[in-house]
Design a protein that fits this description.
Elements: E1 16-21, H1 26-38, E2 42-45, H2 56-68, E3 74-79, H3 83-89, E4 97-99, H4 103-113, E5 117-121, H5 129-139, H6 146-161
Bound molecules: D-ribose.
D-ribose binds at residues 22, 24, 56, 79-81, 83-84.
């Protein structure tokens, strides 16, 4: 059964997941949304809403602000390659975006690095990989192991202290 944004979760333990894309990512956005809804989470659809050309930094900004303001716990962000969206999103404090086209990285990026934005390149992967990657990302939890917490603190230090 195809789910839509009308089928939002009724349980209370769901995550709020922002989803956004540019025109390059648009062909896989509906697939991403359906996987998140089927997993029982809430989707915040931040566009784009058509294949018309747009600029990926605008959608990285929308996702980053949703994370920063606590409107979303995590996000999935798509562009054509996944590179531009990832670069742009990682400019925003408190955003840890990873371009993951394999399930090991999609899971481990959360467990070790507390990745909160999964970035995908819709021109690189096909629809069959979307459920695998998005489920791996959503099911993973940051490990809280001392060495990962220590490394994450160093990442946060870099974010705070290396501006010019
Ligand atoms: C848009 O043509 C394309 O450049 C964009 O989607 C993305 O791939 C950038 O990294």
């Amino acid at each position: 059964m195809r789910l839509s944004l009308n089928d939002q979760p009724k349980n209370i333990s769901y995550l709020k997941i922002a989803v956004a894309c540019d025109h390059g990512g648009f062909p896989l956005k509906a697939e991403v949304i359906e996987v998140i809804l089927k997993a029982g989470h809430k989707v915040i659809d931040l566009g784009t809403h058509s294949p018309a050309p747009v600029d990926y930094p605008d959608f990285a900004k929308a996702v980053g602000e949703a994370i920063q303001q606590g409107r979303a716990e995590r996000a999935v962000l798509l562009c054509g390659s996944g590179v531009g969206a990832s670069v742009a999103a990682n400019k925003m404090p408190n955003v840890r975006a990873g371009l993951c086209h394999d399930t090991y990285s999609a899971r481990q990026g959360v467990e070790h690095d507390d990745m909160n934005v999964l970035t995908l390149g819709a021109r690189i992967i096909g629809p069959a990989l979307v459920p695998e990657l998005v489920q791996a990302f959503l099911e993973a939890v940051f490990s809280q192991e001392e060495r990962h917490v220590r490394r994450l603190e160093k990442v946060k230090w870099l974010e705070k202290n290396h501006r010019y």
